[in-house]
Amino acid sequence: MSARVRLVLSLRFLRRLLVGAVVCYVAVSLCLGGTPRARPVFQALALSWLLVLAIWWYRCLKYPKTEMGGRGVRALELVVSNAALALLLAEVCLRAFAAWAGSSLLLGATLDDHRLQPGRDYGAGLLGNRRGYPGPDVAPTKPPGVYRIAALGDSFAVGPAVPFADNYLTRLQRILPGAEVCNFGVSGAGPREYLAVLRRDAWKVRPDQVLVSVFVGNDITETLPAPRALDPRGHAVYLLCERGWRLARENARREREPTAPQRLAAPPLSEATYREVEARRLAVCLGPPSAALEKKWQRALGYLDALVAECRRREVEVAFVLIPDEFQVNPAVLAQALRDVRANRAALDLDLPQRRLRDFCAGRGVPCLDLLDAFRGLPDTYAPCDTHWNVRGNRLAAERIAEWLRERVTRPR
After folding, report:
1. Which terminal Cβ of the chain has fewer Cβ within 10 Å, N or C?
2. Per residue in 142-179, pLDDT tens?
3. How many whole angstroms separate alpha carbon 401 and alpha carbon 408?
4. Is 195 helix (H, G, I), strand (E, B) or coil?
């Protein structure tokens, strides 16, 4: 066999090895990604493909005229190999761009990717501080006579639907004498992320109290992904395609509107998407919960339990504020959500998530403020097609929290 033929066979072997590995990886990632079986299944398929290629290589060396398939097969192989190479290069380039440009929601889905960008002006007074949280930077050293509160929360703490001056935590700072409220809000966060933010950043400001705002709408049922075991959500190409599709779908649902320079100029959700969100969130009020939902409850309560234990080890007071979902306070939103999921009102227990969280706090002696009664019957406290509080809702929340905390704040360390 000539050196030229050996070179051609070697290149073909490498090309087929690349194609097989990429195809196996993509197939396993999409079908089993995120499960314990993903990695061993991929390894078995990759080894099987390598064995097939080794047999082919041996036959080609022993019988030089042996080949796998005709001209059509080789053409298909060339197309597939080029596609696999393009997919691999796209992933590498997107990751390199993310490393060069910093965290990006376009390419990532972790806690760091959901924090604000330090120094960026998001409009309407919202700025990202140097740690990536809303509001001004917080000095590590607390001013004398000040009661410092580290406020953990999700997008409600960021305040996407109101000017930052009207955010409930910003208002709380103004109306609570002797207090300094440090906003550690992260959009999309939940109990797992609250614990991570506490350990990584909140302890650095030496708070007198940790105030955790738990949003019952999605803090139990939804979490930021923690990609592992070939999870497709850990790959830049998948996230780019998935978010591009969601953006295109959302734009198609909205009526055409002029581009707005400010983040508050237009509702963030189309009516159809907003209805989907509220209908999906009804699940947290279904009783008794399904096995899958109960597993999510136990996972969320486990992180909250760890958060409480962390605060007690440091002898720092911890308190919880329970934020209701709009369907719990607005009968019209509830009725529409029930129609969308074709459910009966009798199947829902609207107080269920708050009751479970209150019982959790009571069992551990943790102060808990449930805002459901304060907001019940006040549908005009949420921004239209948004799921977050408007200015009135933020004001009401700040007033109730301030009234509840006033006695503690008068006893600074």
Report:
1. N
2. 888 899 999 999 999 999 899 999 999 999 999 998 89
3. 11
4. helix
Q: Which of 331, 347, 342, 319 is nearest to 409 (CA)?
A: 319
Structure tokens at 124: 């309407």
| CA dihedral of 285, 288, 290, 293, whole degrees rounded to 10 | 40
Q: In whole angstroms, what separates CA 252 from the centre of its chain?
A: 24
Integer CA distances (angstroms), 72 to 7, 52, 77, 126, in order: 22, 20, 9, 59
Residue with tokens 């809000």: 185
Cα dihedral sign for 31, 35, 38, 40? negative
Please identify which residue in the block is written with the tokens 């607005």: 330
Give the whole-angstrom CA distance, residue 149 versus residue 31: 45
Taking every pair of Cα atoms in the chain, the longest distance, rounded to a whole number of angstroms, is 90
The amino acid at residue 208 is D
Q: Give residues with Cβ within 8 angstroms of 178, minimum separation 6.
A: 145, 146, 147, 409, 410, 412
CB 162 within 8 A of CB 264: yes
Are 131 and 202 a contacting pair, CB within 8 Å? no
d(CA 375, CA 382): 10
DSSP assignment of 343-357: --GGGB-TTHHHHHH
Contact 377, 329 (CB under 8 A): yes
Task: Determine the Cα–Cα distance for residues 184 and 151; give it in Å rounded to an integer.
Answer: 6
3-state secondary structure 209-237: EEEEEEECCCCCCCCCCCCCCCCHHHCHH
CB 25 within 8 A of CB 87: no
pLDDT band at 258 (very low <50, low <70, confident <90, very high): very low
Q: How many angstroms separate the CA atoms of 272 and 279, rounded?
A: 11
Tens of pLDDT, residue by residue over 178-204, are 899 999 999 989 999 999 999 999 999
User: How many Cβ atoms from other residues are within 10 Å of residue 310's Cβ?
Assistant: 17
